[in-house]
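Today's session is about reading a structure prediction critically. Students often jump straight to the picture, but the first step is always the sequence itself: look for stretches that repeat, for charged clusters, for runs of hydrophobic residues. Only then move on to the predicted structure, which in these notes is written as discrete structure tokens rather than atom positions. Here is the chain we will use throughout the hour.
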Amino acid sequence: MKRVAIWAFYAVGALAIGYLALFAYATFTGRDLQPGDPIHIFRRPDAPSYS
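Below is the predicted structure for this chain, in token form.
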């Protein structure tokens, strides 16, 4: 049981480090947002507009 808890602790730590690495990557490589800019998340430029 103790060994399972240790592996779970390592897994949670690895997930946290991975999340921080992805956050740092997104922060340093993402484009700057300007006030009033629309936010396009997972939107293809050639997608039809339904509104």
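Discussion point for the tutorial: Residues 2-29 form the longest helix (28 residues).
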